[in-house]
Amino acid sequence: MRAEIWPVTEDFAAEVGDVDLSQPLAQDDVAAIRAAFDRYAVLVFPGQKLSTGQHLDFARLFGPLETTIATHRANDRLRVVPEIADVSNLNPRSEIWGKESRQRMFQLGNRLWHSDSTFKHTPAYASLLYARSIPPVGGHTEFADMRAAYDALPEGTKRRIDGLVCEHSIFTSRAKLGFTDFSAEERAAMPPVPQVMVRMIPQTGRKCLYLASHAGRVMGLPDDEGRALIEEMMAHATQRQFVYTHRWREDDLVIWDNRQTLHRGTPFDDLRWKRDVQRATVEDVANSCAQAGVKVPMQAAV
Ligand code: OGA
Ligand code: MN
Asked: Does any domain span residue 199?
């Protein structure tokens, strides 16, 4: 075995070195990486030179991949294959996007704390973000540890939120940025979905807060009370002591577990510098309510 695991924080983030992800991996390297991914929720693989195919092949070791959500109008061309989420600030000609572009407005949502694809019935398990080029300043990615955040809650709060279900919608996070220009068809195509507020990770038995900027209502609570609870939990969960900030180097591949982390991109001068980061996303096994055995009232169970 060659892969070496170097902790960056005690049990949240680690670097993995001496492994070349462009080549098929030995079984014991795969096992070491998987074990590290169960222990840490964020793994950094520096210095990887990957084609899109190699990026996707590595991602598939973790499970079936998502395909891109319809974030752009149907006649927009994609710069990348459908299995890659284009998180860059580039248009289909690989030029820096326009100030007023819809793509830019949409991606601003990544600056809000979130977990990937919680607005989909089956959310994301792992995300693998690969940096092909990065700006000289800014544009970091912050990760918050939802296991540590849950553990740090007062017992009374744990009792209050265990078993609660939130409605998640992509339009909730976009509305927070003043972006509400969606057609009826677009809204109908992505109805709100239920997700538990606290989830247990089968591999470790640990509990995590499971929230995102996409969470809008708490089922069974009045809207204002639910929103206030979500805000309170998000503020708690994203305190500095739970956060690891990843400062990108070119050719870093970072993988995170969306079940156990929140993340957000930090600002940079996106009208000046190219930031070409591309994400492969592995689906979770099922909706988080289904995994927890929580029954959800019909209207949100779509
Ligand atoms: C993502 C994401 C933030 C960033 O790729 O899912 O939210 O820093 N990225 O690019
Ligand atoms: Mn994201």
From this structure: yes
**Is residue 130 in a domain?**
yes
Q: Is the model's pLDDT at 40 over the cut of 60?
A: yes
User: Which residue's CA lies nearest to atom 4 of ligand 1?
Assistant: 265
pLDDT category of residue 252 using cuts at 50, 70 and 90: very high
Is 124 inside any structural domain? yes
Establish whether residue 83 lines the binding site of ligand 1, counting it when its CB lies within 6 angstroms of any ligand atom.
Answer: no
Which residue among 65, 264, 281 is best mutated to probe the pocket of ligand 1, counting the most ligand atoms within 8 A of its Cβ? 264
Residue-number span of the structural domain to which 252 is assigned: 4-292
User: Considering the domain boundaries, does residue 297 fall inside one?
Assistant: no
CATH code, domain carrying 155: 3.60.130.10
| Contact partners, residue 255, CB within 8 Å, separation at least 6 | 37, 42, 43, 45, 62, 126, 127, 128, 129
The residue contributing the CA closest to ligand 1 atom 6 is 116
Rounded distance between C-alpha atoms, residue 165 and residue 267, angstroms: 31
Q: For the CA atoms of 223, 227, 230, 236, what is the dihedral angle to 10 degrees?
A: -140
Q: Write the residue with the smallest CA distance to atom 2 of ligand 1.
A: 110
Q: Model confidence over 60-71: pLDDT tens digits?
A: 999 999 987 655
172: CA distance to ligand 2 center in Å?
15
Report which DSSP code applies to 114: B
What's the pLDDT tens digit per position in 136-151? Answer: 999 999 999 999 999 9
The percent of residues above 70 in pLDDT, for the chain, comes to 95
Residues 6+ apart with CB under 8 A from 95: none
Q: How many domains does the chain have?
A: 1
